[in-house]
Amino acid sequence: MPIYEYHCAACGQRHDALQKISDAPLTDCPACGAAALSKALTAAGFQLKGSGWYATDFKGGPKPATAADKPAEKAADAAACTAGAAPCAAPACPAASATDAS
Question: Is the pTM here over 0.85, yes or no?
Fold first, then answer.
């Protein structure tokens, strides 16, 4: 059941009420007794529990590599190859192409 927040126009008090969706809105203020309650617009607060899609697809953890990350990795690999490290087998590696030419 949702929790609704009510605001009293007469005394300014705010009240929370646990009600069914099909229940009629409250009208009488429990603090002052005036028939001046109206529902206040609030953000919905809820927590999803269990092992559904929200737990498996959107849970925190390591993020997969994106296309934006790959050019930086290629530049780092090329820098390692040209810095005198062992040539790699990648066709774009400048050190691999230099060893193939000789």
Answer: no
